[in-house]
Amino acid sequence: MVDKEIEKTIEALLEERREFKPSADFTSQANVREAAIYQRAADDPEAWWESQADRLDWFQKWDKTFEWNAPHHKWFIGGKLNVAHNCLDRHLDSAGDRVAYHWVGEPGDNRSITYSDLHDQVCRLANGLKELGVSKGDRVAIYLPMIPELPAAMLACARIGAAHSVVFGGFSAESLRDRINDAACRVLITADGGYRRGQIIPLKLNADDAVAECESIEKVIVVQRTLEDVNMQEGRDIVYQDLIEAQSSECEAESMDSEDMLYILYTSGTTGKPKGIVHTTGGYLTGVSSTHHLIFDIKPESDVFWCAADIGWVTGHSYIVYGPLANGCTSILYEGAPDWPDKDRWWGIVEEYKATILYTAPTAIRTMMKWGIDYPNKHDLTSLRLLGSVGEPINPEAWIWYQEFIGGGDAPVVDTWWQTETGAIMISALPGLTTLKPGSATIAFPGVEADVLDDKGGLVGKGGGGYLVLKRPTPAMFRTIFGDDERYRKTYFEKFGDEIYFPGDGAKLDDDGYFWLLGRVDDVMNVAGHRISTYEVESALVDHQAVAEAAVVGRKDPKEGETIVAFVTPRAGHEGTDELMIELRQHVAKVIGKLARPHAIIFTDDLPKTRSGKIMRRLLRDIAEGEKPGDVTTLQNAPILDEIREKAKSLGSRDG
Ligand code: PRX
Questions:
Q1: Which stretch of 19-23, 395-399, 615-619 has the lowest confidence by average pLDDT?
Q2: For 176, 190, 486, 580, which has the most beta carbons within 10 A of its beta carbon?
Q3: CA dist., res. 560 & res. 366, Å (int)
Q4: CA-to-CA distance for 603 and 549, rounded, in angstroms?
């Protein structure tokens, strides 16, 4: 718990409703010091993005900057480049000995890998992949823990022009299987296991279960991380080390078209299976390199950047791998949990490697707040000069705590809004320029046209609230949903038309035109900064033989953002017992992954439905929040609500 003294400090700070102007010291050294950058980008967005694309090394310059055939768009058409070349080769002459990653394993082992080391490993693996028959245009699945082989595997794919599909190590065998099958991946790169809170996560076991139902997989490459005894299937499975040792450390980087696919990353949508978000080469790398440089104020020679996300999510793709490496920056890569072996693990790492920039999620910040300041206070955190937040709205209390107790009271906190789909940060302060307001992501990045619309598509204007939209494509935005372009149009462009991208978030504009994000407006939950759809969890529940019907809602939670509450009707002959509750939670973990387990399950004989039989989740959400259910006039079975409300009282306090 935060002790009383600190609580008082926070309250006092909040009461001041302070705004934080950048300090003269920070501004004097910042990568952006001139507000004119915004006007320049707004006056000629194409020229602005061209100037950012010039940050990269192109084998061949593009003929045309931008083509907009709404809702589709293309960038730097005709341009040729290679992402691995941009992330590695071009730094070798000037910075080959610079550390790319200070890697910290959870059990305490560590390695510092230079740009030359990484280049060597990537080339060998790229040659290894070629030997296994992988070529340009193929897809490779990656299911690895947070070890250096993970970025190496992504870059090896990029080097030869194969698209990768990284699946978060916390996902189950079934989730992995579905993602592999959707993209018809030919090779899977996995590990024997990974460490999490001192336990071993059996990745190879999951991979074996998944691959048993994946016809497209020809080879499985296995990194030996935990050295556990794992099944190696003859003819299919190859040890990573054996594969790369036999290869040359030279491998020419494939010349890729700017619009060639770089990767697929799956994310939850409101309905159906997860969506394979497709990112391309030139635009994506331009966006992540530019935002990383300007928002995190990167000085590649001196900064030690730590994005404490998992590479299995887009945050890790863009700000652990592609942004930092494109900028030749040194990053920290930590394998494990923040509280292993103790709750000061992160702060020990910051101290040891003298991290200068930390980028994490509000849920982590709130957890650290709960653990108390004794943990950060044990360590010297004075190296930190800038802090970032991502994944969900950050409450002002957490913002202030972060700045005060982690950032030493003066580090700017940049709250960054973006999504898997946008590829790069879209709304954020520029730390040398923008006056910060705790709780607001502030304003759109140069070249990004964000606004807030009402239900009919009208501008809400300053002081109004409604739907966040992006009114012009930006280079790092995704191009489509893999194999389902119709869903791309329907999901994002139906609400306001083909030219206006609707990300699914609500937002408010304050009198200064600052954006205050209000969370999702659809059936997507945000659990500890991770997107999970109510539909996915419901499908997993009804897949269990004891379940007749299920409805899932998110319940606001002071720590996690949201927790998952499930309302379940058991089939005839089954009782809603504690045993069934445990079984169902395990079942969801098996079908999707532990992150999607309902926090609470309420058994009920029926669910509230409209006369046409549609489940009214809105009412269940009210009940889960402990509020009186809203309008019930269209309900066919109103009495069930009282019954469910009575049972939901057991949800009790929010921090259980
Ligand atoms: O609802 C927004 C929330 O996270 C969603 C995107 O989730 P995902 O694609 O998993 O990417 C997460 C990391 C980029 C958004 O639609 N979100 C993300 N950042 C913020 C946020 N909500 C409020 N403030 C943010 N800074």
A1: 615-619
A2: 190
A3: 8
A4: 10
Taking Cα atoms as reference points, which of 364, 350, 317, 339 lies closest to residue 157? 317
Whether 655 shows a pLDDT value over 60: the answer reads no
Q: How many CB atoms lie within 10 A of CB 529?
A: 19
pLDDT value of position 2: 39
CATH (one of 3.30.300.30, 3.40.30.10, 3.40.50.2300, 3.90.360.10) for 528-654? 3.30.300.30
> What DSSP designation does 23 have?
P
Residue ranges of the chain that CATH labels 3.30.300.30: 528-654
Q: Are 227 and 102 in contact (CB under 8 A)?
A: no
Atom of ligand 1 nearest to the CA of 394: 24
Report residue 649's pLDDT band, with 50, 70 and 90 as the boundaries.
confident
- Cα 395 to ligand 1 centre (Å): 14
Round to the nearest angstrom and report the end-to-end CA distance of the chain. Answer: 14
pLDDT band at 13 (very low <50, low <70, confident <90, very high): very low
Specify the ligand 1 atom closest to the Cα of 503. 16
Quick check: CB of 268 below 6 Å from ligand 1? no
Answer yes or no: are the C-beta atoms of 510 and 518 closer than 8 Å: no
Report the atom number in ligand 1 closest to the C-alpha of 520. 1
- Contact predicate 140/134, CB 8 Å: yes
User: CB of 402 within 8 A of CB of 389?
Assistant: yes
pLDDT digits (tens, 9 = 90+) for 216-246: 999 999 999 999 999 999 999 999 999 999 9
Tell whether omega for the bond before 598 is within 30 degrees of 0, i.e. cis: no
Q: Is 609 or 408 the better-scoring residue by pLDDT?
A: 408
Q: Please, where in the chain does CATH 3.40.50.12780 lie?
A: 13-505
Fold of 13-505: Rossmann fold (3.40.50)
Compute the distance from residue 440 Cα to the ligand 1 centre, in Å: 13
Question: CB–CB of 167/153 below 8 Å?
Answer: no
| pLDDT tens track for 33-67 | 999 999 999 999 999 999 999 999 999 999 999 99
- Note the pLDDT of residue 569: 93
Closest residue to atom 5 of ligand 1, CA basis: 419
Using DSSP, state whether 275 is helix, strand or coil: strand
Mutate to test the pocket of ligand 1, among 171, 505, 530 (most ligand atoms within 8 A of CB): 505
Give the strand pairing for 275-280 and 480-481: antiparallel
- Model confidence at 627, in pLDDT bands (50, 70, 90)? confident
CB 256 within 8 A of CB 157: no
pLDDT of residue 239: 98
Helix (H) or strand (E) holding 141: strand 139-143
Instruction: In whole angstroms, give the CA distance from residue 488 to residue 506.
Output: 20
Q: Which residues pair with 139 in a beta bridge?
A: 163
Cα 216 to chain centroid distance, Å, stands at 27
Read out DSSP for 531-588? EEEHHHHHHHHHTSTTEEEEEEEEEEETTTEEEEEEEEEEPTT----HHHHHHHHHHH
What mean pLDDT is predicted for residues 417-427? 98
| Predicted local distance difference test score (pLDDT) of residue 638 | 85
Whether the predicted pLDDT of 656 surpasses 80 = no
Residue 92 in tokens: 């070798």
Q: Which of 440, 531, 536, 562 to mutate to test the pocket of ligand 1 (most atoms within 8 A of CB)?
A: 531
pTM as predicted: 0.92
* Partners of 221 in beta bridges: 189, 238
